[in-house]
Amino acid sequence: MTDEEGAAYRLVGTARGNFITAADPDAEFLLRQGFCHFKVNLIGESGFFGTVDFLLRRKNGEEVIRDRGSCHFA
Question: Any idea where the domains of the chain sit in the sequence?
Fold first, then answer.
């Protein structure tokens, strides 16, 4: 991964996810529920840079987003 100034970073950690897709007989779309969770450390040329702890969860049409890291998705 690189930033806008060209500095290179490594991501070290985990990414997990689980989604269930089921056809809803009363609608023209698919109902999706599940989650994806990214929990990684960013390491730059000078050492530790920051953390990403991002969770996206969807259940019964409601979406929950939790972003607790020091670096955030743009």
Answer: 9-67
